[in-house]
Design goal:
single chain, 84 residues, mainly beta, Immunoglobulin-like, three-stranded antiparallel sheet, 7 strands, 0% helix, elongated
Length: 84
């Protein structure tokens, strides 16, 4: 993910083969914050920060034959002071 310092950047989660019950943050970013609402994850860096950041989230639900599944995703973020 690429982001501009102090501005929000989001990920829209794709549909899953079965229902998803929860999406939650496992490891927050060190230089920003993350919010999760429905199928959207929003990252915003600390104002003035430039560099690398990361966060980890997990989605839990059922697969197509009702078996529990859990998917853990690590997101690496490149934060720049401006778009160039």
């Amino acid at each position: 993910m690429y982001a501009v310092s102090g501005l929000q950047c989001s990920i829209i989660l794709r549909r899953s083969p079965g229902p998803v019950y929860t999406t939650r943050l496992l490891a927050p970013p060190k230089n920003g914050r993350v919010s999760i609402s429905g199928n959207r994850i929003v990252y915003i860096s600390t104002r003035g920060y430039s560099g690398d950041d990361r966060f980890v989230y997990v989605r839990q639900g059922l697969d197509t034959i009702n078996r529990p599944i859990s998917r853990t995703v690590e997101v690496n973020v490149k934060v720049a002071s401006s778009l160039q």
